[in-house]
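SUBJECT: protein chain
CONTENTS: sequence, C-alpha coordinates:
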Amino acid sequence: MGRPGSAVPGAGRLGRRTERFARWSTAAPLSLVAVVAVTVAVLGSACSAGVDRGAPTPDPDDVPAAIRSSGQLAFTDDGAPPVGGIDGPVPSGPGPTLGDELTDGQAGAGPLPDGETPVDGEVTQEGLDEVAPPRPDGIELVYADGALGPARLGTTIQQMVADLGPAYRSEPEPVIRPDFPSGHAVIKDDAVVFWAIEEDGVVTTVMTTSPLVGLEDGLRPTLPLVEAITLRGQPTLQRGTERREFVRFEDGTGGSDDLQVLVAVGRFGGPVGLYPVDATEPGAETEAFAPAEATIKELWFRLG
Protein backbone atom coordinates (compact mmCIF):
# COMPACT_ATOMS: atom_id res chain seq x y z
CA MET A 1 0.00 0.00 0.00
CA GLY A 2 1.12 3.54 -0.54
CA ARG A 3 1.63 6.11 2.01
CA PRO A 4 -1.35 7.62 3.71
CA GLY A 5 -2.65 10.52 1.70
CA SER A 6 -1.04 9.30 -1.53
CA ALA A 7 -3.16 8.92 -4.73
CA VAL A 8 -4.65 5.60 -5.71
CA PRO A 9 -2.53 3.87 -8.37
CA GLY A 10 -3.70 5.00 -11.87
CA ALA A 11 -5.90 7.73 -10.43
CA GLY A 12 -3.94 10.48 -12.23
CA ARG A 13 -4.49 9.04 -15.67
CA LEU A 14 -8.21 8.29 -14.93
CA GLY A 15 -8.77 11.86 -13.77
CA ARG A 16 -7.25 13.33 -16.89
CA ARG A 17 -9.46 11.08 -19.09
CA THR A 18 -12.56 11.99 -17.10
CA GLU A 19 -11.82 15.69 -17.53
CA ARG A 20 -11.40 15.37 -21.32
CA PHE A 21 -14.71 13.40 -21.56
CA ALA A 22 -16.51 16.07 -19.62
CA ARG A 23 -15.27 18.83 -21.95
CA TRP A 24 -16.30 16.80 -25.04
CA SER A 25 -19.77 15.93 -23.70
CA THR A 26 -20.49 19.61 -23.07
CA ALA A 27 -19.46 20.82 -26.53
CA ALA A 28 -20.85 17.90 -28.59
CA PRO A 29 -24.59 18.84 -28.48
CA LEU A 30 -23.84 22.34 -29.76
CA SER A 31 -21.74 21.04 -32.60
CA LEU A 32 -24.36 18.46 -33.54
CA VAL A 33 -27.10 21.11 -33.66
CA ALA A 34 -24.99 23.27 -35.92
CA VAL A 35 -24.33 20.39 -38.30
CA VAL A 36 -28.03 19.47 -38.46
CA ALA A 37 -29.03 23.10 -39.10
CA VAL A 38 -26.57 23.48 -41.93
CA THR A 39 -27.71 20.19 -43.48
CA VAL A 40 -31.39 21.19 -43.37
CA ALA A 41 -30.63 24.57 -44.90
CA VAL A 42 -28.68 23.02 -47.76
CA LEU A 43 -31.34 20.41 -48.48
CA GLY A 44 -34.11 22.99 -48.31
CA SER A 45 -32.31 25.28 -50.75
CA ALA A 46 -31.80 22.42 -53.19
CA CYS A 47 -35.47 21.37 -53.04
CA SER A 48 -36.66 24.92 -53.56
CA ALA A 49 -34.49 25.27 -56.64
CA GLY A 50 -35.80 22.07 -58.25
CA VAL A 51 -39.46 21.85 -57.19
CA ASP A 52 -42.19 24.49 -56.92
CA ARG A 53 -43.93 23.40 -53.77
CA GLY A 54 -46.44 26.27 -53.71
CA ALA A 55 -47.43 28.23 -50.65
CA PRO A 56 -46.86 26.36 -47.38
CA THR A 57 -49.86 25.40 -45.31
CA PRO A 58 -49.89 27.46 -42.14
CA ASP A 59 -49.85 25.73 -38.83
CA PRO A 60 -53.26 26.18 -37.18
CA ASP A 61 -51.49 26.80 -33.87
CA ASP A 62 -49.65 29.78 -35.41
CA VAL A 63 -52.89 31.42 -36.63
CA PRO A 64 -54.26 34.07 -34.28
CA ALA A 65 -57.53 33.14 -32.67
CA ALA A 66 -59.20 36.30 -34.05
CA ILE A 67 -58.42 35.25 -37.63
CA ARG A 68 -59.49 31.65 -37.04
CA SER A 69 -62.84 32.75 -35.62
CA SER A 70 -63.47 35.25 -38.44
CA GLY A 71 -63.57 32.53 -41.08
CA GLN A 72 -60.71 34.04 -43.10
CA LEU A 73 -58.72 30.90 -42.38
CA ALA A 74 -60.72 27.81 -41.66
CA PHE A 75 -59.29 24.45 -40.56
CA THR A 76 -60.82 21.08 -39.91
CA ASP A 77 -60.63 19.43 -36.54
CA ASP A 78 -57.38 17.67 -37.43
CA GLY A 79 -55.72 20.94 -38.41
CA ALA A 80 -55.90 20.40 -42.18
CA PRO A 81 -57.00 23.30 -44.42
CA PRO A 82 -60.53 23.07 -45.87
CA VAL A 83 -61.29 21.67 -49.30
CA GLY A 84 -60.73 24.35 -51.92
CA GLY A 85 -57.77 26.03 -50.25
CA ILE A 86 -56.81 27.68 -47.03
CA ASP A 87 -58.83 30.81 -47.57
CA GLY A 88 -62.02 29.23 -46.25
CA PRO A 89 -65.38 31.03 -46.54
CA VAL A 90 -65.52 34.62 -47.74
CA PRO A 91 -65.94 36.96 -44.77
CA SER A 92 -69.26 38.71 -44.40
CA GLY A 93 -69.53 42.44 -44.88
CA PRO A 94 -69.21 44.87 -47.78
CA GLY A 95 -67.89 43.36 -50.99
CA PRO A 96 -64.91 44.65 -52.93
CA THR A 97 -65.29 47.79 -54.97
CA LEU A 98 -63.94 48.68 -58.37
CA GLY A 99 -60.18 48.94 -58.28
CA ASP A 100 -59.77 46.25 -55.61
CA GLU A 101 -57.91 43.10 -56.54
CA LEU A 102 -60.56 40.39 -56.72
CA THR A 103 -60.16 36.78 -55.73
CA ASP A 104 -61.65 33.87 -57.65
CA GLY A 105 -65.41 33.72 -57.30
CA GLN A 106 -65.78 37.35 -56.23
CA ALA A 107 -67.36 40.11 -58.28
CA GLY A 108 -66.77 43.83 -58.09
CA ALA A 109 -69.45 46.09 -56.72
CA GLY A 110 -70.40 49.57 -57.77
CA PRO A 111 -71.19 51.14 -61.15
CA LEU A 112 -69.01 50.70 -64.20
CA PRO A 113 -66.76 53.65 -65.03
CA ASP A 114 -67.80 55.99 -67.84
CA GLY A 115 -67.17 54.41 -71.22
CA GLU A 116 -67.01 50.86 -69.87
CA THR A 117 -69.33 48.24 -71.34
CA PRO A 118 -70.72 45.21 -69.50
CA VAL A 119 -69.01 41.89 -70.02
CA ASP A 120 -70.73 39.08 -71.91
CA GLY A 121 -73.51 37.46 -69.90
CA GLU A 122 -74.10 40.46 -67.64
CA VAL A 123 -77.75 41.50 -67.44
CA THR A 124 -78.30 45.22 -68.02
CA GLN A 125 -81.37 47.34 -67.48
CA GLU A 126 -81.50 47.99 -71.22
CA GLY A 127 -81.68 44.25 -71.83
CA LEU A 128 -84.46 43.89 -69.27
CA ASP A 129 -86.45 46.67 -70.92
CA GLU A 130 -86.35 44.82 -74.23
CA VAL A 131 -88.07 41.78 -72.72
CA ALA A 132 -91.57 42.88 -71.76
CA PRO A 133 -93.06 40.93 -68.84
CA PRO A 134 -96.17 38.85 -69.56
CA ARG A 135 -99.45 40.74 -69.23
CA PRO A 136 -101.47 39.70 -66.18
CA ASP A 137 -104.50 39.10 -68.42
CA GLY A 138 -102.53 36.67 -70.64
CA ILE A 139 -102.94 38.71 -73.85
CA GLU A 140 -100.01 38.22 -76.22
CA LEU A 141 -101.34 39.99 -79.33
CA VAL A 142 -102.91 43.40 -78.75
CA TYR A 143 -105.05 44.77 -81.56
CA ALA A 144 -104.74 48.48 -82.32
CA ASP A 145 -104.85 50.65 -85.44
CA GLY A 146 -105.25 47.78 -87.89
CA ALA A 147 -102.42 45.70 -86.43
CA LEU A 148 -102.47 42.51 -84.41
CA GLY A 149 -99.30 42.84 -82.39
CA PRO A 150 -96.50 43.21 -84.95
CA ALA A 151 -98.65 41.87 -87.82
CA ARG A 152 -100.77 44.24 -89.86
CA LEU A 153 -103.96 43.57 -91.73
CA GLY A 154 -103.68 44.43 -95.40
CA THR A 155 -100.60 42.25 -95.91
CA THR A 156 -100.36 38.66 -97.15
CA ILE A 157 -100.87 35.80 -94.76
CA GLN A 158 -97.24 34.82 -95.26
CA GLN A 159 -96.09 38.29 -94.21
CA MET A 160 -98.37 38.31 -91.19
CA VAL A 161 -97.04 34.99 -89.94
CA ALA A 162 -93.46 36.09 -90.55
CA ASP A 163 -94.08 39.26 -88.56
CA LEU A 164 -95.54 37.27 -85.68
CA GLY A 165 -92.37 35.22 -85.33
CA PRO A 166 -91.22 31.60 -85.51
CA ALA A 167 -93.66 30.41 -82.84
CA TYR A 168 -96.54 30.89 -85.30
CA ARG A 169 -97.51 29.03 -88.46
CA SER A 170 -100.49 29.00 -90.79
CA GLU A 171 -102.55 26.25 -92.35
CA PRO A 172 -105.30 26.48 -94.97
CA GLU A 173 -108.80 26.41 -93.45
CA PRO A 174 -111.46 25.16 -95.92
CA VAL A 175 -114.42 26.42 -93.86
CA ILE A 176 -114.02 29.08 -91.18
CA ARG A 177 -117.77 29.63 -90.71
CA PRO A 178 -120.70 28.30 -92.74
CA ASP A 179 -121.31 31.73 -94.23
CA PHE A 180 -117.67 32.83 -94.55
CA PRO A 181 -115.18 31.94 -97.27
CA SER A 182 -112.17 29.77 -96.72
CA GLY A 183 -109.02 31.24 -95.23
CA HIS A 184 -106.10 30.36 -92.97
CA ALA A 185 -105.78 29.20 -89.41
CA VAL A 186 -102.85 30.83 -87.60
CA ILE A 187 -101.54 28.42 -85.00
CA LYS A 188 -99.26 28.54 -81.98
CA ASP A 189 -98.50 25.52 -79.81
CA ASP A 190 -100.97 23.43 -81.84
CA ALA A 191 -103.87 25.75 -80.95
CA VAL A 192 -105.61 28.17 -83.33
CA VAL A 193 -104.92 31.75 -82.25
CA PHE A 194 -107.00 33.36 -85.04
CA TRP A 195 -108.42 32.80 -88.50
CA ALA A 196 -107.50 35.08 -91.37
CA ILE A 197 -109.56 35.73 -94.49
CA GLU A 198 -107.89 37.09 -97.61
CA GLU A 199 -109.38 39.23 -100.35
CA ASP A 200 -107.34 40.06 -103.46
CA GLY A 201 -104.28 38.42 -101.90
CA VAL A 202 -104.22 40.34 -98.61
CA VAL A 203 -105.75 39.66 -95.19
CA THR A 204 -108.82 41.81 -94.62
CA THR A 205 -110.56 40.02 -91.74
CA VAL A 206 -109.30 38.35 -88.56
CA MET A 207 -111.61 36.35 -86.29
CA THR A 208 -110.51 35.00 -82.91
CA THR A 209 -111.88 33.08 -79.95
CA SER A 210 -108.51 32.93 -78.22
CA PRO A 211 -107.79 34.80 -74.96
CA LEU A 212 -104.28 35.42 -76.31
CA VAL A 213 -105.75 38.16 -78.51
CA GLY A 214 -107.39 41.30 -77.19
CA LEU A 215 -107.42 45.04 -76.70
CA GLU A 216 -105.02 47.10 -74.63
CA ASP A 217 -107.42 47.40 -71.69
CA GLY A 218 -107.88 43.61 -71.45
CA LEU A 219 -111.08 43.10 -73.45
CA ARG A 220 -110.69 39.61 -74.94
CA PRO A 221 -112.49 36.34 -75.63
CA THR A 222 -113.53 34.37 -72.50
CA LEU A 223 -113.74 37.60 -70.42
CA PRO A 224 -117.00 37.67 -68.44
CA LEU A 225 -119.45 40.24 -69.77
CA VAL A 226 -119.76 41.88 -66.36
CA GLU A 227 -116.02 42.59 -66.40
CA ALA A 228 -116.19 43.91 -69.95
CA ILE A 229 -118.88 46.35 -68.80
CA THR A 230 -116.49 47.77 -66.19
CA LEU A 231 -113.98 48.42 -69.00
CA ARG A 232 -116.28 49.80 -71.72
CA GLY A 233 -119.58 50.82 -70.15
CA GLN A 234 -123.17 49.61 -70.46
CA PRO A 235 -123.92 47.23 -73.36
CA THR A 236 -126.51 47.09 -76.10
CA LEU A 237 -127.13 43.55 -77.39
CA GLN A 238 -128.07 42.84 -81.01
CA ARG A 239 -129.20 39.69 -82.73
CA GLY A 240 -127.15 38.56 -85.73
CA THR A 241 -127.33 35.89 -88.41
CA GLU A 242 -126.52 32.25 -87.71
CA ARG A 243 -127.70 32.73 -84.10
CA ARG A 244 -124.85 35.11 -83.42
CA GLU A 245 -125.20 37.90 -80.88
CA PHE A 246 -123.19 41.10 -80.95
CA VAL A 247 -122.57 43.69 -78.25
CA ARG A 248 -121.94 47.40 -78.52
CA PHE A 249 -120.64 49.12 -75.43
CA GLU A 250 -121.36 52.60 -74.14
CA ASP A 251 -117.99 53.94 -75.30
CA GLY A 252 -118.67 52.77 -78.87
CA THR A 253 -116.54 49.62 -78.80
CA GLY A 254 -118.10 47.03 -81.09
CA GLY A 255 -120.20 49.59 -82.96
CA SER A 256 -118.06 49.86 -86.10
CA ASP A 257 -117.15 47.53 -88.95
CA ASP A 258 -113.45 47.40 -88.05
CA LEU A 259 -114.15 45.86 -84.61
CA GLN A 260 -117.10 43.66 -83.73
CA VAL A 261 -117.61 41.89 -80.40
CA LEU A 262 -119.64 38.70 -80.05
CA VAL A 263 -121.07 37.36 -76.81
CA ALA A 264 -122.51 34.01 -75.74
CA VAL A 265 -123.41 31.91 -72.75
CA GLY A 266 -120.76 29.25 -72.68
CA ARG A 267 -119.55 28.51 -76.20
CA PHE A 268 -122.75 28.59 -78.20
CA GLY A 269 -125.52 29.28 -75.67
CA GLY A 270 -127.76 32.30 -75.70
CA PRO A 271 -129.28 34.62 -76.19
CA VAL A 272 -127.59 36.87 -73.66
CA GLY A 273 -129.98 39.77 -74.26
CA LEU A 274 -133.54 39.73 -72.97
CA TYR A 275 -135.42 40.53 -76.20
CA PRO A 276 -139.14 41.14 -76.60
CA VAL A 277 -141.03 38.04 -77.60
CA ASP A 278 -141.58 39.26 -81.13
CA ALA A 279 -137.99 40.52 -81.61
CA THR A 280 -136.60 37.41 -83.23
CA GLU A 281 -135.12 38.78 -86.45
CA PRO A 282 -131.46 39.76 -86.97
CA GLY A 283 -130.95 43.38 -86.03
CA ALA A 284 -133.22 43.35 -82.98
CA GLU A 285 -131.68 45.17 -80.02
CA THR A 286 -132.03 45.31 -76.25
CA GLU A 287 -130.26 46.83 -73.31
CA ALA A 288 -131.61 44.19 -70.93
CA PHE A 289 -129.45 41.12 -70.43
CA ALA A 290 -128.78 38.21 -68.17
CA PRO A 291 -125.01 38.42 -67.61
CA ALA A 292 -124.53 35.77 -64.95
CA GLU A 293 -122.66 33.36 -67.22
CA ALA A 294 -122.25 35.45 -70.37
CA THR A 295 -118.77 35.98 -71.76
CA ILE A 296 -117.05 37.66 -74.69
CA LYS A 297 -117.09 34.89 -77.28
CA GLU A 298 -115.26 36.33 -80.29
CA LEU A 299 -113.53 39.42 -81.62
CA TRP A 300 -113.66 40.28 -85.31
CA PHE A 301 -111.21 42.75 -86.79
CA ARG A 302 -111.70 44.13 -90.27
CA LEU A 303 -109.54 46.28 -92.48
CA GLY A 304 -111.23 49.69 -92.58
Q: What stands out?
A: DSSP finds five helices and 13 strands in the chain. Confidence is low (pLDDT under 50) at residues 1-53, 66-91, 95-110, 116-125.
